[in-house]
Structures are given as C-alpha cells and as structure tokens.
C-alpha cells in the first residue's frame, strides 16, 4: 500500500497541528456522505497515480487516516525518539484518538480527491502552474517550490506606484501562506527597481498634502511591515540597478543575489527625504555606521561588488549567467526541509522584530515631515519636470 510505505524524510508537524487538521476533517465528514469501502479502495489506488509528491505533511495525514481506517485507533508502542520517521507516523496516527474507522475512511477519500483535482486543474499549463492572475504590474509565478514576484513595469524602470505597493503586500501575504518554500523578488527588464514612483506625490487627495502624507504613512508602514514579518526565506534577485526603497528593503531580505550590472543607490537627501525600509537600523548594523552614512546621508552609489564587500549583497554573478546561476541555486535550496528553513529564518529575525517595527514607525514619522518640506517638493518637481535625473 503506497500510503503505508512512504518514506517521511523530514517533517515538523506537531501532534497539535495534526489534531487541528483532523478536527476540520471530522467536521467536513459530518456533513458529507459516508464513503463506502469501494470509494476508499478507489482512493487508495488513485494515490498511486498522483504525479506530484504531495509533501511530507500531507503524506503523514494520509498515512494516519489510512491506518485509522483500516486498523482503528493506534495501539502500537511509541517508537524511540531517535527513530524520527516511525515516530512521526506514530504521532500522526495516535493524534486521531478514537476517530471512527468510517470517518477516517471518509476523510481519506476527501483528501485524495482534493489532491487529484488540484493536480488535474494544474495540468495542461506547462511551466506556468504557476502564473497568478490579477496584478497589473507584477507577475507572480509559483514553480519548483519557489514563488517569484516580479516587478513588471520595465519601461518605467519598475518604479513602484501606489497600486504596486498594495499589490506587493497582497502577493507577499499570499506567498507567505502558499506551499512554496522560498519567495523571490526580482525585476523585469534592465532595472531591478527605480524606487518610489515620484508621480505618487502628484496624486493629491481632497484633504491636501496633510491627508496625502497620512495616507502615504499608512501605506508605507503596512508595506515595510510585511517584509519585517515575512515568515519564509525571502530572496532578492537584483537583476540590475536598484534605487531608493528597493535598496533599503534589502536589509530585510535573507539573501541578496546581484548581477554585476546592479548598482545600489539611496538618494534620499537629493530628494529632500530621509531613509525608510528600516535602513536607518539595518544598514549601520550590516555595514557599520560610517559606510551606512555615506549611502544614506550622502547618497553614495555602490557597485554590486562594493555592496557585497559591505555585506548588503550575498553574492554577485556575471550578468550573462545571472539568471541561470541564481535559479539553479534556488531550485536546489527550495528542496531543503521547509519547516526547518522557516524556523531558522524566524530565529534570526525574531530577535529584532520589535526593534524593526519601532524603526519603521520612527522613519515614517520623519518622512511625514520631509514630504511636507520645500526641499522634497522642489526635488520631486525637478524630476517630474525633467530638470534633474539622479
Ligand atoms: C499615496 C502615495 C503613496 C506614495 C508612496 C509612499 C511611500 C514612499 C516612500 C518612499 C520614498 C522614497 C523612497 C525612494 O524610493 S527615493 C528614490 C526615488 N527614485 C528616484 O528618484 C529615481 C528617479 N529616476 C531616475 O533618476 C532615472 O529615471 C533613472 C532611474 C536613473 C533611470 O534613468 P534612465 O535615463 O536610464 O531612464 P529614464 O528615461 O529616466 O526612465 C525611463 C522612464 O521611467 C521613468 N521613471 C524612472 N524612475 C522613475 C521613478 N522613480 N518615478 C517615476 N518615473 C520614473 C522615467 O520618468 C521615464 O519615463 P518616461 O519614459 O520619460 O515617461
């Protein structure tokens, strides 16, 4: 029986999670028709035909339901703590308690049916099991355990509009919950991102500049907050020059791969503004206060190699092989045990999560003042009237 002999190579499913899943399953089954023995046999055979590995958590759930359905409650001796695989299976089965055999049968049938239908609905879409609709200037795809969020406004150097800030938040929220193991942000075209779209400042609401500053503050707090709280490994694939907020956010990524064509530029002073994206905290921590000041106060532009030497970038690749090398590497990493990766990421970030949220708030308060200033208004107007390019 396939469901019994599966190897569970790695997992971190707690009995509590298993039980809560099963409570849901029990609830489902109370309202559903009871599955016959024949339905159950069909489901067991259907499992053998699945092309996609459903993942260890799902295999454990199926294993437990199969055992419960065929043998009843678990009465085997508990395996030793070092026998991880047998213990995971035992935990999962034991967590079903006295769930009746027929309910377990029903739950097994429903679970297999949901796996088969999600597999058949993703067939016939090669390469793009993948593309998620609904974003105007983002392309979001999910493949090989990697969710890729690509900024897609190449003619405007991927400058971030108000709508894009909101869409990135939605895409990150979805990526945080989907079954991918790694999330990647990248840009389409020759730029990674030219930062905040300066036209955002021309969209003045009826309440005037005050209301605009308040709206911007809410939007920005939420946007940066999503990066602070993102639960999985977050990778930036910096395919070209990066400006402004797209650079400052890099301090909140776990890994930053850059093309050797990329540059890193935070011209806040030139724009009459001040740092955001928690860079006033992360940059001095990453590169030391003296180097951070040169970037954040004087707007010094770094090459990819300089950014790597200062710890902002993990590794630099030749532009000609950038895509191939980065994706090959990420595909290999995406096969690592996902829960272990999440746990490690969270341990690294949790230490300073509160500090990051506090920094985000402080930076936004300072920016609200800057946005109302003459220095900022003139700089934005100069760019928009094409008098100045950075
Ligand atoms: C409710 C509203 C919410 C508002 C947002 C709230 C929060 C904001 C908080 C963050 C604040 C600031 C952080 C920053 O990101 S500061 C940095 C801002 N970025 C810039 O100042 C870059 C400006 N762009 C340039 O200097 C140059 O375009 C370039 C990037 C150096 C590229 O030069 P290029 O010669 O190679 O190409 P160019 O012809 O200039 O660009 C092609 C077209 O793209 C347009 N474009 C590029 N970048 C931006 C941008 N940031 N904003 C708007 N438009 C941009 C450029 O205008 C060209 O358009 P067109 O072809 O002329 O129509």
From TrEMBL:
Q: Which PANTHER family match?
A: ENOYL-COA DELTA ISOMERASE 2 (PTHR43684:SF1), PTHR43684
Q: What EC number is given for this enzyme?
A: 5.3.3.8
What keywords is this UniProt entry annotated with? Acetylation, Isomerase, Mitochondrion, Peroxisome, Phosphoprotein, Transit peptide
UniProt-annotated location(s): Mitochondrion; Peroxisome matrix
Can you name this protein?
Enoyl-CoA delta isomerase 2
Q: Which family does it belong to?
A: In the C-terminal section; belongs to the enoyl-CoA hydratase/isomerase family.
Tell me, what does this protein do in biology? Able to isomerize both 3-cis and 3-trans double bonds into the 2-trans form in a range of enoyl-CoA species. Has a preference for 3-trans substrates.
Q: Which residues form the signal peptide?
A: none
- Which source organism does the UniProt entry give? Loxodonta africana
Q: Where on the tree of life does the source sit, at the highest rank?
A: Eukaryota
């Amino acid at each position: 029986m396939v469901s019994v002999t599966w190897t569970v190579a790695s997992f971190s499913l707690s009995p509590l999670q298993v039980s809560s899943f099963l409570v849901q399953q029990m609830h489902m089954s109370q309202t559903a028709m009871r599955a016959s023995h024949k339905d159950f046999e069909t489901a067991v055979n259907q499992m053998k035909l699945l092309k996609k590995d459903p993942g260890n958590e799902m295999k454990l759930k199926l294993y437990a339901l199969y055992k419960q359905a065929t043998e009843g409650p678990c009465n085997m001796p508990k395996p030793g703590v070092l026998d991880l695989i047998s213990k995971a299976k035992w935990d999962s089965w034991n967590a079903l308690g006295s769930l009746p055999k027929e309910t377990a049968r029903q739950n097994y049938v429903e679970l297999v049916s949901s796996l088969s239908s999600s597999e058949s609905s993703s067939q016939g879409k090669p390469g793009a099991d993948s593309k998620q609709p609904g974003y105007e200037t983002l392309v979001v795809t999910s493949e090989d355990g990697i969710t890729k969020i690509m900024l897609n406004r190449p003619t405007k150097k991927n400058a971030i509009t108000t709508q894009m800030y909101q869409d990135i938040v939605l895409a990150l929220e979805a990526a945080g919950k989907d079954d991918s193991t790694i999330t990647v942000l990248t840009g389409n075209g020759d730029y990674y991102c030219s930062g905040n779209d300066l036209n955002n400042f021309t969209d003045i609401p009826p309440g005037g500049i005050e209301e605009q500053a308040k709206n911007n503050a809410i939007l920005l707090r939420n946007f940066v907050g999503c990066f602070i709280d993102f639960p999985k490994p977050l990778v930036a694939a910096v395919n070209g020059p990066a400006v402004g907020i797209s650079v400052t956010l890099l301090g909140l990524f776990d890994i930053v791969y850059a093309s050797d064509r990329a540059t890193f530029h935070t011209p806040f002073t030139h724009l009459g503004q001040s740092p955001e994206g928690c860079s006033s905290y992360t940059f001095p921590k990453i590169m030391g206060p003296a180097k951070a000041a040169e970037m954040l106060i004087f707007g010094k532009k770094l090459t990819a190699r300089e950014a790597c030497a200062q710890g902002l970038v993990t590794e630099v690749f030749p532009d000609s092989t950038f895509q191939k090398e980065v994706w090959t590497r990420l595909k290999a990493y995406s096969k690592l045990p996902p829960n272990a990766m999440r746990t490690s990421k969270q341990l690294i970030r949790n230490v300073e999560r509160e500090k990051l949220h506090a920094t985000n708030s402080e930076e936004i308060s300072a920016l609200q003042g800057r946005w109302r200033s003459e220095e900022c208004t003139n700089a934005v107007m100069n760019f928009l009237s094409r008098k100045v390019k950075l």
